[in-house]
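Feature request, filed as a ticket because there's no other form

It would be nice if the structure record came with a short human-readable summary line next to the tokens. Right now we just get the raw output. Example of a typical job, pasted below so the devs can see what we mean:
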Amino acid sequence: MNRYFYIDSEGKQKGTFTVDELRNEPIRKDTLVWTQGMSEWLRAADVVEIQPIFQAAASGHPEFGSSTQPEVPYQTAHQASVAQDKPIMPKSWMVESILVTVLPFILCGNVFSLLGIVAIVNASKVESLYHQGLFAQAQDASANAGRWTKITLWIAIGAIVLAIIGIILAVIFFGSLAGIGNALAI
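Raw output as currently delivered:
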């Protein structure tokens, strides 16, 4: 007995399945299937071994292969109820935390910008906690990532301002030394 792959409604390859197992999968007559020995993907209705699935649909079992089957992906009742109660995923702050950590460190050697690693760690937790259904913890991780991203940003801004002030003071100091040297030489 052949084992088949098929392309689901989202375009993802699924498999391998026996014909009996395919009866429990959301395939339609126009679903593309493939098995070893086929030169290309074929419509399920064009594969002789799979056709009994659709004949069962015509004989009063519309859940198998019916062309009137909805285009939505298969979900269990539990998955559908969880999807309706799921809040919007909080902002992860990943891009921002990486930028405020790496750029100041590279541009002005600010070691304190490495505090942004705390933001990166929290940002990396947001999506995984959310997908595990731990929505409150995902929100907390997002809040912590945002907090540490902002702290690191202000540290970086402060370091840049101090560097600019230092450069200005150095120019003024060495300029005044040059002026004193010129005055003494006269």
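Something like this underneath would help us a lot:
The chain has six helices and four strands.
Confidence is low (pLDDT under 50) at residues 62-82.
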